[in-house]
Design brief:
Elements (H helix, E strand, L loop, with lengths): L1 H33 L6 H13 L3 E5 L2 E4 L6 H12 L3 H30 L2 H13 L1 H7 L5 H21 L5 H14 L3 H18 L1
Antiparallel strand pairs: 1-2
Helix pairs in contact: 1-4, 1-5, 1-6, 2-3, 4-5, 4-6, 4-7, 7-8
Length: about 210
């Protein structure tokens, strides 16, 4: 019995590792052949102004920097933080893309967990494979864009929401709150989704 259980566990994790390995290979190919080599003009100006003037801005009027009031600040600060932590321009963009590659791989694992809970383990593996091989997901790894980070945080939010709804474990409130807060800083309209999610959880709590 123990040997059978051990074989099943090894088989389970090997499948996940192989999927992640293929995801890693495709992600590296995307970075090498299609990846950005520098920040575009808008991101570059915002990071520069954060670094030199401590203001989130990409434009000037009469020589004065104008704050980007309607620009969600998370991704510019994400880029700025990595720049502060890396040594030299040569390591900056590779560091950003490497972190995005990590988010992409971790997103696949989180999606597999969500599908395993909501449907079944076989569908979860298929869903993970489709996600890891979806061209837009692979391409976004190599792009200086908030798409990759947005997807990663959204999956954390959904996983936490599902776990709170199913188990009512308070431990999931922390990732639910953190991912929700960060998503509001990444996509301004996300507060609507966050509000309805909280309302749904409170309604469920009252019902039961």
């Amino acid at each position: 019995f123990l040997m059978t259980l051990k074989k099943k566990m090894i088989s389970k994790y090997l499948k996940t590792y192989f999927i992640l390995l293929f995801g890693l290979i495709f992600g590296l190919i995307s970075i090498y052949f299609f990846g950005d080599r520098a920040l575009d003009n808008e991101w570059s100006r915002m990071v520069y102004n954060l670094e030199k003037h401590n203001i989130l801005s990409s434009r000037t009027i009469n020589g004065e920097l104008i704050p980007n009031i309607f620009m969600p600040p998370l991704y510019p600060f994400f880029l700025f933080s990595i720049k502060k932590l890396t040594f030299g321009e040569n390591f900056y963009i590779p560091a950003v893309l490497s972190i995005q590659l990590f988010f992409y791989l971790l997103s696949g694992v989180i999606l597999e967990k969500i599908l395993r809970i909501l449907i079944d383990k076989n569908f979860a593996k298929i869903g993970m494979i489709v996600f890891m091989l979806f061209p837009l997901n692979i391409y976004s790894v190599g792009q200086i864009s908030s798409v990759n980070l947005n997807l990663f945080l959204m999956l954390i939010f959904i996983y936490s929401f599902v776990q709170i709804y199913r188990t009512n474990y308070k431990i999931y409130i922390l990732p639910f709150s953190i991912s929700g807060s960060l998503l509001m800083l990444l996509r301004g309209e996300f507060f609507i989704i966050y509000f309805f999610s909280l309302f749904y959880l409170l309604l469920k709590k009252k019902t039961f």
